[in-house]
Amino acid sequence: MEKIIVKGTDLKKSYKMSKTNTIKALNGVNIEVKEGDFTAIIGPSGCGKSTLMHILGLLARPDEGSLEIDGEDFSKLNERKAYKVRAQKIGFIFQGFNLIPTLTAIENVVLAGRYGGMKVGERKKRAEELLELVGLKDRMNHKPNELSGGQQQRVAIARALMNNPSIILADEPTGELDTKTSLEVMNILKKLNKDNNQTFLIVTHNLDVAKECKSIIKLKDGKNDK
Amino acid sequence: MKNYQPTPFREPVVEHPKSAEALSGITSGTLPVDTLNKIAEVDGVKAVAAGISLMVEEPDPENPNTGVSMGPPPTIMGMDTKSDFVNKNWTSLNMKEGKLIDKNTPDNEITIGYSIALDKKLKTGDTMTIRGRDFKVIGVLEKTMTGPDSYVMMQMTPARELFVASNPFLKSLKEKADKAASISDAELAKLSPDSRAQILQAKSFKMEDVSTSASVSWKDDYDSDVVAKNIKDKLNQEVSVLSPKKMGEEIDKASAMINSIILGSAMLALIVGLFSIVNTMVMSISERTKEIGIKKALGASNKAIAWEYTLEAGIIGLLGGAIGAGFGTLTTTLVNAKMAEKGAEIFLIEPSFIIQVLVFSFVIGVIAGVIPAIRASKMQVVQALREL
């Protein structure tokens, strides 16, 4: 039986915009991601994709429902303890790459290892291996503004892999890339999934990207769209 | 910056009531050996050392401004090296070169202060002519930025001779005494009673009686103020006594104005610097909200974020301090070089002071940065990531 990495049950989350206006971003979403899954979450703008992503990535907590990662319930996890789980179990790939502009490619990757509690000596070695894996061996010492969008996203992929996470959450990973580069990035993710059995959950509104995934979860108005 | 720092007087200084004036060679105010012996017997007194203070340069009546320069005037300090008295100030003086005079030093050898060496371009082994008499320099003191920089330290005998020679009254007394000494007792008996009395009086003049001041060290368990009072009481109006405390008060009074100006400027610089760092950090953190969000998403704890940004503020402070210390050192070096031409350097920067400045700058940076850093650490990740 395949191991369940993430299990969200009846997840609800609302945001209070003003005294009278509350937006229900999630209204009872159920989600299950198994080890080695390559799943896309799709849905129209405002359907709750990003909120679900933040909850699954422990960047926010659900108002109701339960969330288990590697069999542990984290739905009520205190922010003071969440950073450790984030560092060790979850890898993030963002739409806007979100690299630290003042650091080089390798320094950006090493930073994740530092927060993940990796030993100093190991960090650089692993960061070099990962950057080589994503095809950036010769661009390691370049700063983000010296890299193309595709290259920056590849640095972000290496960074997400740094602490060997249980799951990588990718929020519109090709959102800022052209078709050709998007395909290159998706191919890297697929290869990692195939070769390393790395679990991916990809939020996208691009159906071409979704088609590359093994399974698709549809959201609509904060609920699962059957 | 260690600039003017008065020598901490630890011994009560005893002076003849008029000897303050004697410093400028106007009166004959001296402390006779008998008086010094009386002081030595006072309860609490451990040892007494006679001293002579005399200006190095002979005053020029035609041009009284000659030799006027920054700092105290060059002064001959006759030192009673044979006394048991231990001057805590002088023994702690560091030598730039050579050695300090001691009880075995011949009368024609001297140790000179840093400013004197600088002004007269003297070094160990050179000869310095003081009031027409040649002395061999056996040591130069390290820069202190206080009194000793302008001292010429010599044995009591030559200092007394120079003092007597500089004072017309004492000079004539000495001449009479010398003449009287050559008169034998047989010749004396032949003289009239009046002349005999005069010669006997002249004979009673002893060079050992010529001292302008005396320093007193006190026994352990005794309070210096009490000892000072005991001396005053026992010798009544014969001498004026300055206790270390009173001396300190006098010096404090004199330097209070300068100190408050320096302290005021330093406080102003500190407050401005502190707010500059706070402002820099607040701006820097608000500009890097997204960066903080990314770091937190990657797994940085609140503590790690607070520590990182506090350290950054500390480093900003340290760099500011280093640049300031660099400019300060450069400026003081230039001013010192300029002032050295006039015979006295004003500033003294010690390596330990630079280290203190750097540590202090770092601490100020940390203090200024800690609140913005804590605020940064408490930022909500999702909101921070949404920042452009």
Describe it.
The complex is a heterodimer of chains A (226) and B (388). Chain A has 226 residues and is α/β, with parallel strands linked by helices. Chain A has one domain: 3-Layer(aba) Sandwich (Rossmann fold), CATH 3.40.50. Chain A is built from 7 helices and 10 strands. Chain A has helices at 49-56, 79-89, 105-115, 120-133, 149-161, 179-196, 207-211, and strands at 4-16, 22-34, 38-42, 64-69, 72-73, 90-93, 167-171, 199-203, 215-220, 223-224. In chain A, the strands form 2 sheets. A 6-stranded mixed sheet of chain A has the order 6-7-8-3-9-10. Chain A has a 4-stranded antiparallel sheet with strand order 2-1-4-5, with helices on one face. In chain A, a hairpin with a 2-residue loop joins strand 9 and strand 10 (223-224). In chain A, helix 4 packs across helix 5. The longest helix of chain A has 18 residues, at 179-196. The radius of gyration of chain A is 17 Å and the shape is globular. Chain B is of the alpha+beta class and 388 residues long. Chain B folds into 2 domains: 13-247, no CATH class; 255-386, no CATH class. Chain B is built from 14 helices and 10 strands. In chain B, strands 1, 2, 3, 4, 5, 6, 7, 8, 9 and 10 form a 10-stranded mixed sheet that branches. In chain B, helix 10 (244-287) runs parallel beside helix 13 (351-377). Chain B is elongated. The chains are: A alpha/beta (226), B alpha+beta (388). At the A-B interface, helix 2 and helix 3 of A face helix 11 and helix 14 of B.
